[in-house]
Design goal:
Recoverin, domain 1, mainly alpha, PBP_GOBP_sf, about 120 residues, PBP/GOBP, odorant binding
């Protein structure tokens, strides 16, 4: 169920943002991809998964979803990342979600399962 939901959001957000699979792979490998299409993708994914609300990362919502829906190893990775990345900022919504994704990748690569 979780994988199906992620795949559905991924397909939608790839189409909306224009990001290519190579852009997603680059981020997973390197932890960075400042291409505007990738930044749009992070915003789309976090919005669709209720992780971005009112112009900021919805840390509590992300944590609550992780606790309710994910198995312990993945849940713990996400909780670790949210505790370390709750204060990432940016000038635009895309920058905010990208900076959060980048920080999460650095904190625990497993936490960026949305990519």
């Amino acid at each position: 169920m979780i994988k199906q939901m992620k795949d559905m959001h991924k397909k939608t957000c790839m189409a909306r943002s224009g990001v290519k699979k190579e852009g997603l792979a680059k981020f997973m490998e390197e932890g960075v991809n400042d291409d505007p299409a990738f930044k749009k993708y992070t915003l789309c994914m976090l919005k669709n998964m209720q992780g971005f609300k009112n112009g900021k990362i919805a840390i509590k919502d992300i944590e609550n979803q992780a606790k309710a829906m994910l198995p312990p190893p993945l849940r713990d990775a996400i909780l670790d990342a949210t505790s370390k990345c709750s204060n990432t900022g940016g000038d635009t919504p895309e920058d905010i979600t990208y900076n959060f994704s980048k920080c999460s990748h650095k904190a625990n690569v497993k936490s960026v399962m949305i990519i």
